[in-house]
Amino acid sequence: MSLPPLVDAAWVQERLGEEDLLLADVRGPNAHQRGHLPGAIPLVLGSPPPFATRETVREFATEVQRRLGRHGVTGAERLVLYDRGDCVGAASSAQAAALAGHPQVSVLAGGVVSWPGKLELGPAELQKAKTALEPRLDAVPTWEELRERLEDPRLTIVDVRSPDEFNGRGGYPCDPRQGHIPGARLLEVERLFVGPGRPHEPWGIRELVGLAEGSELVAYCHSGSRSALGALALRSAGYEARNYPGSWHEWSRHEDLPLER
User: Fold this and answer.
1) 6-136 maps to which CATH number?
2) Nearest alpha carbon to residue 94 among 114, 68, 125
3) Using one digit for the tens of pLDDT, what is the confidence trace for 190-214?
4) Would you state the pLDDT for residue 47?
5) I need a labelling partner for 182 at 20 to 30 A (CA). Which of 21, 94, 152, 219 fits?
């Protein structure tokens, strides 16, 4: 059965107990023990390292495969990830799982706070498993890919930061340069959501973006958190959207990479 990129609590409730459905809590083992969705396992996957190249992304994909296997995740299940509620952690973890090659990964909108039923307490019993996953390195765009595709009409780069960050009038002092990736379109991440971890209806997002379903998008922000949310919302609206985790924090440090203001 196919799995949408974003599901709600009602969707999960209807399918609880189905053999191929696996719920995973990305908040960490301690938070998981204090209260988790029925049958959920703890699953912390991490994020690509800063200043990632194609080679370091490949190494990270291999490490994520190991982590999945240690938690009993084979790749044959429908994997639904959830966090505290804002979906930042779950969206980043979904990208990591996709990078490792998991074919069916989704995020629970609104996270654990959206769950209307009773939470389970205590640790989960984990069983190691062998995975037969092939890494999907294109799940994580690198600065190298974006540099090579700046003139590619098939790709739309979406900047989900504030207008001041986009125009170079504001930004983080830790970044040596301010501005935006050439050709990027500004779409503040807040405009894609109706509340924490809850994107607008797909038609509303498509109206904001103004591109046909299936268009290829890459979202970025300052350090990959807002853009993880942005990419999730865009995928929920039918776009082939990915998050550039290095984002402006990385791009601004490569003096040979162009920028616009």
Assistant:
1) 3.40.250.10
2) 68
3) 999 999 999 999 999 999 999 999 9
4) 83
5) 94
* Torsions phi, psi for 218 (to 5 deg): -125, 125
- Residues 75-102: tens digit of each pLDDT: 999 999 999 999 999 999 999 999 999 9
The radius of gyration of the chain's CA atoms, rounded to the nearest angstrom, is 18
CA–CA separation, 20 and 24 (whole Å): 13
How many CA atoms, within 13 angstroms, populate the side-chain half-sphere of residue 230?
31
What CATH number should be reported for the domain whose range is 141-251? 3.40.250.10
**pLDDT at residue 155 is higher than 90:** yes
Q: Where are the domains of the chain?
A: 6-136, 141-251
Largest interatomic CA distance in the chain: 54
